[in-house]
Amino acid sequence: MRTGRTAPGAGRAPGHRRAAIPLKAFRAAADNDFTLPASVVEQAAACLLVLATETAQTVRPSALRATISVALRLRDAVELSHQPTLSSRFW
Questions:
Q1: What's the rounded Cα separation, in Å, for the pair 69 and 32?
Q2: Is 80:38 a contact under the CB 8 Å cutoff?
């Protein structure tokens, strides 16, 4: 007997649950001051790299390059945010 329900997560991409957290954070940031925790940006970058890996054989090369480029820029931004700020006296 079928109940019409499917298993949780059935038919979704393997990284769906991981991607939900950054997506919710990005939507919440859009409603506020556009500030995101570094951990969320790191997680979003990781999700994009996983997406690029999983779809590398099925998407256009330009789409793959764009996805990887965004992921690397997000990762670089997080790394920059961890560096100490230099005061103007060092310049």
A1: 26
A2: no
